[in-house]
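Supplementary notes for students who missed Thursday's class. We covered one full example, reproduced here. Read the sequence, then the structure, then the short commentary at the end.
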Amino acid sequence: MGTVGELERSFSSSRDDITKSRVLLITGSTIGNALAHALAEDDNVSRILLSWRSSEPKISSDKIKCFQMDACVESEVASALERLGPLDGIINTIGLLHDGSVKPEKSISRLDTAAFDKTLTVNVLPTLLLAKYGRKALKDSQDAWFATLSARVGSISDNQLGGWYSYRASKAALNMALKSLAIEWRIALPRCTVASLHPGTVGSPLSEPFTRRTDPERVFTPAQSASYLKEVLHNLSPVQSGRFWSWDGTEIPW
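Structure (token representation):
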């Protein structure tokens, strides 16, 4: 396990070389780990800084360096972004659909205020904090990304089934935050592409209880989803900033 300070010191001696290629920060999850490994295969990516909160991921690439950070704690995010130095991309993959105290509501009668607050916090706050403290780190990049995993169920236009009040509302709020950020950064960071990304239905701890009856061919492995998302990111440019993209490269209506 590495601390933020140890990572900063390990990179300082080769900072001149690092700035010649892309350095990315990815907040960890099952998909985040897979995406880090997918992007590490790119020749123009020199370092990937992968954060984790409670379980250190298994790494098989020398380009990936892990450090512990709770992205819902402002002081930890501020400290990390201050010490990690210049970045060419920040990708947040943290999300909450269920845990021991949170379950998607099939009916409004199942709404629990504590669960709602937790869902909203985990699904929105990390992106806001990463944007707040990541702006300085991204400002000198010639081709930056700021992206967050959202979900198609966060699209108001696409909602045909209802239910899942907390999760849908939190992802809709996340999308609105990204839209506002893209507008602000058109002037502040004109070379940065802000994107909301739908990874598809992925077999992971987050989705496992809800994919048991799904056609297996419609459930991606984390590696499959990461491969698709990598392609989407590579095809985006700042003129497309502030939009919502599916894993297959199609645009999703807000």
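Commentary. The first strand starts at residue 22 and ends at 27. The chain has one domain: 4-246. If anything here is unclear, bring it to office hours.
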